[in-house]
Amino acid sequence: MARQWMLVTVWLLLCVNVSLQDETCSSPSVTSNMYTTTDGMIVSDVAFIVELSVTCQNGAKDLSLYAVINGVTVPVVKSLDNNKYQFSWTQDPKNVQSGEQTLRIYDEEGFSALRKVQRSGEDTSNIKPLFTVTINHPGTYQGPWVQSELVAVVTALILWYVAYSTKLKIQL
């Protein structure tokens, strides 16, 4: 009798273990949309929002994904829509570079390998991401090169000089 209970317990543990494991995605097909703040005059930080649509060849769903942005890991959140994920981050406008940037996206297995390598102090470029996403930031507007007040003062001084020199010529 004890042996039967032991077999049932082992069988239940195996079933629970299999059901709790995340699926791995093979040959992911990814489409991405990106939004970024471009007006640096009115914000203190530039926001980046990336939305991904991930379809796996093997039909895996509910993936746990992580994005690595400038060496910082950000969790990727699954939306209520099927196979859509989203992540975001902010940066100081002075530190944001315009142009293309490649972001590495890892699944649970790749992320644990990445963390292991980071803890040991080794090079993380050898860890292959599940997929990469390329975003393009057009740049952040920091305001005009010349302030309008300066243009008004210089114009007023030029007009005053022209008027004053014309008055002097007429008086002579």
From TrEMBL:
Q: What does this protein do?
A: TRAP proteins are part of a complex whose function is to bind calcium to the ER membrane and thereby regulate the retention of ER resident proteins.
Q: Which UniProt keywords apply?
A: Disulfide bond, Endoplasmic reticulum, Isopeptide bond, Membrane, Signal, Transmembrane, Transmembrane helix, Ubl conjugation
**Primary site of residence:** endoplasmic reticulum
Is the Endoplasmic reticulum keyword given for this protein?
yes
**Which Pfam family is an annotated match for this chain, by its short name?**
TRAP-delta
Instruction: Write the signal peptide boundaries.
Output: 1-21
What is the designated name of this protein? Translocon-associated protein subunit delta
What does the sequence similarity comment in the record state about its family? Belongs to the TRAP-delta family.
* Location(s) in or outside the cell: Endoplasmic reticulum membrane
User: Does this entry carry the keyword Endoplasmic reticulum?
Assistant: yes
Q: How does it assemble?
A: Heterotetramer of TRAP-alpha, TRAP-beta, TRAP-delta and TRAP-gamma.
Recorded topology in the membrane: Single-pass type I membrane protein
